[in-house]
Design brief:
The protein is an all-alpha fold. It is flat and about 85 Å long. The protein has a two-stranded antiparallel sheet. It contains 17 helices and two strands. About 3% of the residues have low confidence. It has two domains: 258 residues, no CATH class; 197 residues, no CATH class. A hairpin with a 5-residue loop joins strand 1 and strand 2.
């Protein structure tokens, strides 16, 4: 009964608050527009006065209807905090969901409004046409003010609820999910914007000065980049600072924040995304360098300086974000004890990046082998290159892909192997490591069978005089790479399975130990002595004797 009551009051309060916010935003926009016209001595009674009156009546009606509905239901929801079930109400999942949804909605609306406002400000400072920004300044000011007021009010409510005592379950992690999602959103905005601004600098520096004269296209890119960079950096800083304050708290809030899997997930998710985009951009850098070194003739394309510098400067913010968050998660893993869930998040990041790096490496190597076989076969064993040779462009692209992928795989695979040496039993029995090995083995088996079938088909077709169009260069290359990858990871899986560490269905792990002693020793007394010195959760038992 209480759950149904909470869901009703919080749902109606959320819907009515959204309607109230819509009405207030538009009323405030109309007021600001009227003040602007009055200050600029414009004719307030303009030709579109009917549209103004119509909008005024519509949004005034929405506000008048939504305000009492929201107040009525919100007062009833707040009344639950003063009754006998006050603590239950404060810690309810329905209340946490309401606050999280409202904070998220206000955050999204406020972010959009902030970006638009900064865009307009930059364009006006540059003496450019600010009319290219959707909407108008009054609309974005009104949206910023209303969403900011809604956010601040509900944020203070959440802080008040947290001061009331410990929370658990959804009441604890749902608002925390908002904090890290908002931080990730702000960081994403700022990182992409920083790359765009750096690329704009490169484009300006590598473009003929005559092209820039009278060209206002740069203003729009500059305004958009500055707006997203400033807004994103501000939002990330605010939410990250708040999360840091939580981890430093001496009460239950700090304890929960330090042990939060969401915090560790945020760090590794950001690092993973940054690595992924950095790899893609650095691959383009390598392609540009190798194409220039091989003398590839790229007629009608951009000059080398731009092909090299554009992806390079775009990658720099992602590399910086990756290094920063990798340092953060490693520092916190050392400072705060890493629990089982946090370790799982770490493994997902490490093995996921290693899997992507290995995939890029295998694809690039297979392509290089295929190009080499095709080249040697066509030239009757002579590898001759010319400036316009199409193989050069393909080789440059595949070599860049291979180098970047191999670097990513080797780095993260070495991290996985280091963790294996430090905590052998936990790493060998982890589901993430086992899934990584099985995915690679499954992919290797499929690639091996497919390529081998094509090779055998081509051989039989040749023997039987069938006109087969399938060449052997690609399947042979895939076959060679698949055998190497499959053999290496199959040996790793075999080593894990033969390590003597078995993962139990209930999440426990059994270690195989051998203890030798004098003949006729009291094994039961020895077991009791060992059991008394073990930490909580560990159990030692006598196993049946086996022939040695």
């Amino acid at each position: 009964m209480q759950l149904a009551r909470r869901l009703y009051f919080y749902f109606v309060a959320a819907v009515s608050l959204a309607a109230l916010s819509l009405g207030l935003v538009n009323l405030l926009e109309l007021l600001l527009s009227a003040l602007r016209d009055a200050v600029s001595s414009a004719d307030v009674i303009a030709a579109d006065s009917d549209a103004v009156r119509r909008n005024l009546s519509i949004y005034a009606a929405i506000t008048i209807v939504a305000l009492p509905i929201w107040l009525l239901h919100w007062i009833q929801a707040e009344r639950g905090l003063r009754g006998a079930d006050a603590d239950t109400e404060r810690r309810s999942a329905a209340r946490a969901l309401y606050l999280t949804v409202i904070l998220t909605g206000a955050f999204i609306a406020g972010t959009v409004a902030m970006v638009r406002l900064i865009q307009i400000g930059v364009l006006r400072l540059a003496d450019a046409d600010s009319g290219r920004v959707p909407g108008n300044g009054e609309q974005w000011i009104a949206l910023t003010a209303v969403s900011g007021a809604v956010f601040v009010y509900h944020g203070l409510l959440r802080l008040r609820d947290m001061r009331g005592g410990p929370m658990s379950g959804a009441a604890d992690w749902l608002p925390r999910l908002y904090v890290y999602t908002a931080a990730m959103t702000g960081l994403t905005l700022a990182t992409f914007a920083a790359g765009d601004l750096l690329a704009l600098v490169v484009e300006v520096l590598t473009t003929d000065a005559a092209v820039l004269v009278g060209n206002d296209a740069w203003d729009g890119v500059l305004a958009s980049g500055v707006a997203r960079a400033v807004a994103g950096a501000g939002l990330w800083t605010a939410h990250w600072y708040y999360s840091l304050r939580l981890t430093e708290a001496a009460d239950w809030r700090g304890e929960h924040a330090r042990a939060s899997s969401l915090r560790r997930f945020y760090g590794y998710a950001v690092a993973f995304g940054a690595v992924l985009f950095a790899l893609l951009l650095i691959t383009r850098v390598g392609d540009a360098i190798l194409s220039e070194a091989f003398g590839v003739d790229r007629q009608g394309t951009e000059p080398f300086s731009r092909r090299f510098l554009d992806p390079l400067v775009r990658a720099m913010p992602f590399v910086a974000v990756w290094l920063c968050h990798r340092r953060i998660v490693l520092h916190e893993a050392t400072r705060f004890s890493e629990g089982a869930r946090q370790a799982t998040v770490r493994r997902v990041y490490v093995y996921a990046v290693a899997l992507i790096g290995l995939g890029l490496t295998a694809f690039g190597l297979a392509g290089l082998i295929s190009v080499t076989i095709d080249r040697v076969g066509e030239r009757s064993g002579a590898v001759i290159v010319t400036r316009g040779d199409p193989w050069l462009a393909e080789t440059a692209n595949l070599a860049a892909l291979t180098i970047v992928g191999a670097a990513a795989w080797l780095w993260h695979w070495s991290q996985a192997q280091q963790s294996l040496r430090h905590n052998t039993s936990a790493e060998r029995t982890s589901t993430v490591r086992r899934a990584y090995l099985l995915i690679i083995i499954a992919g290797g088996v499929i690639a091996l069978l497919t390529s081998l079938a094509i090779v055998i088909y081509r051989i039989f077709a040749e023997l039987l005089g069938v006109n087969a169009t399938q060449a052997l260069d690609e399947p042979l290359a895939v076959l060679a790479i698949a055998i190497a990858v499959l053999a290496y990871h199959a040996l790793l899986l075999r080593s894990d399975l033969a390590s003597g560490v078995v993962e139990m269905p209930n999440g426990q792990t059994t270690f195989s130990l051998v203890i030798s002693g004098p003949a006729g020793g009291d094994a039961a007394t020895l077991v009791n002595t060992i059991q008394a010195s073990l930490p909580s959760g560990y159990v030692v038992k006598l196993a049946p004797e086996r022939d040695q």
